[in-house]
């Protein structure tokens, strides 16, 4: 059973249990109780500890949101927007966040002249739009899973890049000199296995922030940004 489905089922169970335990309590007390009950069980039911925090806060946040008395259509619009931006993350477990200028500057230093670069999980095209201006020698490609970021990238980049919509894990990664990835810890092991089959000698993988478990990088570049992020680089020789 997927983690989001576990989340929904556990929340429902905790809310019902809180109603049953405290039938006469105020709704806020019931929400706090439901959150605490869910948080305790979350430790066993989920794969990561941070689910406990989400479970604890969620029922209280719902009560707070209802108290705001916002028209229902606002929630509908917010839901649709979240869905088109983040629904892919339910499957891929990689949400959208963007490379910053510091990381892009360091990335550029590690792209050879006239390279063919592919951004896997290209988001809204931030990386390619920046490289289009700063590195006109580079042949740019990107692939993005989620529809809305892909559409924004499409409008933003025009013909400046090969801009694909789909699953990077289904694309042959063989025709590129540089593969740039800013994903999450989740897909890195699978990405490495895929590269073993497909990448060409002379090419390199540059991963922003996320290492590959058990595979030491050939280079680590420190990005001087607020979170002290790193670029991990592997060369295929
Ligand atoms: C952290 S964002 C990075 C965006 C952009 N590369 C940047 O650095 O600004 C990761 C993006 O990868 C996308 N993504 C995750 N898994 C993917 C996959 N298997 N194929 C294509 N895109 C994927 C997500 O939808 C998300 O937009």
From TrEMBL:
GO terms for molecular function: protein-lysine N-methyltransferase activity. The chain crosses the membrane at residues 50-68, 73-90. InterPro entries: FAM173A/B, SAM-dependent_MTases_sf. GO terms for biological process: methylation. Keywords: Membrane, Methyltransferase, S-adenosyl-L-methionine, Transferase, Transmembrane, Transmembrane helix. Gene3D superfamilies: Vaccinia Virus protein VP39 (3.40.50.150). This is Uncharacterized protein. It comes from Amantichitinum ursilacus.
């Amino acid at each position: 059973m997927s983690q989001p489905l576990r989340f929904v089922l556990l929340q429902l169970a905790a809310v019902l249990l809180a109603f049953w335990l405290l039938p006469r309590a105020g709704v806020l007390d019931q929400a706090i109780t439901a959150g605490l009950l869910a948080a305790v069980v979350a430790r066993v039911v989920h794969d990561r500890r941070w689910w406990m925090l989400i479970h604890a806060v969620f029922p209280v946040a719902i009560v707070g949101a209802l108290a705001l008395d916002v028209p229902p259509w606002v929630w509908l619009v917010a839901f649709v927007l979240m869905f088109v931006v983040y629904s892919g993350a339910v499957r891929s477990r990689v949400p959208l966040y963007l490379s910053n200028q510091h990381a892009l500057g360091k990335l550029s230093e590690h792209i050879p002249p006239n390279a063919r670069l592919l951004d896997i999980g290209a988001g809204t095209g931030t990386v390619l739009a920046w490289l289009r201006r700063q590195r006109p020698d580079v042949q740019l490609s990107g692939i993005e899973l989620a529809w809305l970021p892909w559409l924004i990238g499409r409008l933003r980049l025009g013909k400046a890049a090969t801009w694909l919509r789909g699953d990077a894990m289904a694309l042959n990664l063989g025709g590129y000199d540089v593969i740039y990835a800013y994903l999450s810890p989740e897909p890195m092991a699978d990405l490495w296995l895929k590269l073993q089959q497909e990448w060409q000698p002379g090419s390199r993988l540059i991963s922003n922030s996320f290492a590959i478990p058990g595979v030491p990088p050939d280079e680590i570049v420190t990005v001087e940004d607020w979170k002290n992020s790193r670029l991990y680089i592997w060369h295929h020789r």
